[in-house]
Design brief:
Layout lengths: L1 E5 L16 E7 L8 H13 L3 E7 L6 H4 L1 H10 L4 E2 L3 E5 L7 E6 L2 E2 L7 E2 L4 H8 L7 E4 L21 H10 L3 E4 L7 E5 L2 E5 L14 E6 L4 E4 L1
Parallel strand pairs: 1-2, 2-3, 3-4, 6-9, 7-8, 9-10, 10-12
Antiparallel strand pairs: 1-13, 5-6, 11-12, 13-14
């Protein structure tokens, strides 16, 4: 199946439209907006819904997307209007593409607390642990906004300083999803395989919020867990 991976568009989503080649699934790992205002959410959902060429379009939110945490009823109303997109918040969706086996995708927006942004929980605390323990063990693709500790989680000038979540890293070692998609740390953009898991940081904006990092599109076999970049 063909999957495109993106994250951290911060209201600049229209700049990447021409770099979305189409496929089976489009995944967005959060920070859709600047501050999660209602008009920003409406604009993103309209754009995401109207992207052509993908059978499934799935997203989570991030620390900038306040409306999804503080204006739940209004966001629910917006999401109900756009039937072509799927929003995950500590929830899952099952997808079957053609003759491929059914896959399970789970998404969660939480991160260790930093400057009291949205979807923050105390670092290494029981609340965050509870969120990660809710990730099902048979998850094939996991979307989190932030990276796990030590994987695609550093910034320029501080490559020795890992900013990812230690508790998420521990959970990933237990459940070993085939694909883990994140964003949040813009200069963590890239891809690496650790054991059975392909890790992607798909932040499309650099630290100056300029679109310099292209969406990644892969051809992935869920049965053999082999992939190629398209």
């Amino acid at each position: 199946m063909i999957i495109t991976l993106i994250s951290d568009t911060h209201n600049k989503h229209k700049q990447i439209t021409s770099d979305l080649p189409g496929g089976d699934i489009l995944l967005h790992s959060g920070d859709l907006t600047s501050m999660g205002y209602e008009h920003e959410i409406r604009e993103f959902c309209k754009w995401f819904n109207n992207i052509e060429g993908y059978t499934h379009k799935i997203f989570i939110t991030g620390n900038h997307d306040w409306g999804f945490q503080n204006n739940v009823d209004k966001v629910k109303e917006i999401l109900e209007f756009y039937s072509g997109i799927t929003y995950l918040q500590d929830s899952e969706v099952k997808i079957k593409i053609g003759d491929e086996r059914e896959i399970k995708i789970y998404g969660s927006p939480w991160q260790p607390e930093f400057n009291s942004w949205a979807f923050n929980l105390p670092k290494n605390g029981p609340g965050l642990m509870s969120k990660w323990e809710s990730i099902p063990e048979d998850c094939d693709i996991l979307l989190t906004h932030g990276p796990s500790f030590g994987i695609l989680d550093t910034v320029e000038g501080r490559r020795h300083d890992n900013l990812g979540c230690e508790l998420l890293s521990e959970r990933l070692q237990v459940i070993s999803p085939k694909i883990h998609l994140c964003g949040h740390i813009h200069t963590g953009y890239g891809y690496v395989r650790k054991g059975n898991t392909y890790h992607f940081n798909a932040s499309v904006l650099n630290e100056r919020y300029v679109y310099t990092q292209k969406p990644m599109t892969i051809d992935w076999n869920p049965e053999t867990n082999e992939l190629d970049f398209v």
